[in-house]
Amino acid sequence: MLQVINAITGKHSVSTTKHHFYKNMTDYKDYIIIKQSGNFFIVLPLEAQLQNIIEQHKFSRLSINNKDDVNGHLVDVCDGVLYKKTLKIFTTLNDCPNFSITLSCDGVPLFKSSSQSIWSLLCTLNELPPDLRSDHIMLTALWFGAKKPPMNIYLDPFVNECTDLHECGFDWVTSDGVHGTSKVYALILVSDSVARPLLQNFKQFNGEFGCSFCLQKGTLVERGRGKARVYPFEENTELRCQSQTLELVRRAVETSTPSAGVKGPSVLSPLPGFDIIEGCVPDYMHSVLLGVTRSITSLWCNPENYQSPWYLGRSIPQIDKLLLKIKPPSNVSRTPRSIKERRYWKAHEWLMWLLYYSISILKGILPERYPNGGEAQLFCLCSKSSTLSSSQEGAVSPNCCTCLSN
């Protein structure tokens, strides 16, 4: 393992033998060996990491929050309505630009055979260009334990530091000598459907009113030997908002019972300017790519549906022939695999299938009743005005097809 680490880093980063490794660590091992079991977490200051990132780049690469729109198109976070609205709310210090961060919290099992897991809190600086953003991910907290972390304890140091950085700001110097003092505010929370309700202090998706974005109660249905909560398609479902959620928090605290899925105040509520509803983004990977897209494609190919007019199982060899001929550009991380291996497809492969491959491949393969099946699938997933009938029938109006083909 030590040799592998040195091979990856391209230099002598660690000792090449266990003997030398332990010998070098003699002075420190008493401090890092945990002599009791339990749950632990560490906190890494955000301010020092922000200063370190900013001092590596010129100011012209950072001050992108005042740029003009590119023909009104949404290109990045800084073009969004929420970013611009929040930018106008907060005053600046000495005319220096404010900075915003996107935070992400998720847990991963330590081993497949262990209940222990690690939960990380990561932050990115939105004012960095996209090509630099992924190179400067800040780790601000790390939790280790057999259970999910109590968010009010785990995130409390981070929330306190963010509040201080917003009220007092922090000093920074860029690589070209520009210096200033700026405020910092948390803008966006990126998390999956398991971690998000813990952070919002909402009920999970399998409970009543378990959606983070609307007030649909959901329905229990029989599934196997038990029951599962589902959310049937409803038009004109009432969406959640910040002011309404604060009222639900008040009711939940007064009655000591959840109110419309809200259990109580969120640990993120004290963050200045953070919107607990609009600031959270849907779990695109699990709900769209590994969820709806995979489910629709599986229905198309499932032999149990052989009598359905949209069944594609007989056309799998033809689909594979076209799919495996595709030569994507080098920025696509995975080349196409057979649709027979779709159970092993990763999220990025489903993304390419949804947005690019299926639109051209399924033309002429799906029956005429379902023209442009890939476009229908994409439209139903992306359109704000799609209805239950359109999603069931897979039908797309001619205008929509024209729009998508352009």
UniProtKB/TrEMBL annotation:
Query: What is the top-level taxon of the source organism?
Result: Eukaryota
Q: What PANTHER family does the database record attribute to this sequence?
A: F5/8 TYPE C DOMAIN-CONTAINING PROTEIN-RELATED (PTHR46579), F5_8 TYPE C DOMAIN-CONTAINING PROTEIN (PTHR46579:SF1)
| Name of the molecule in the record | Uncharacterized protein LOC122140664 isoform X1
The lineage, from the top, is:
Eukaryota, Metazoa, Chordata, Craniata, Vertebrata
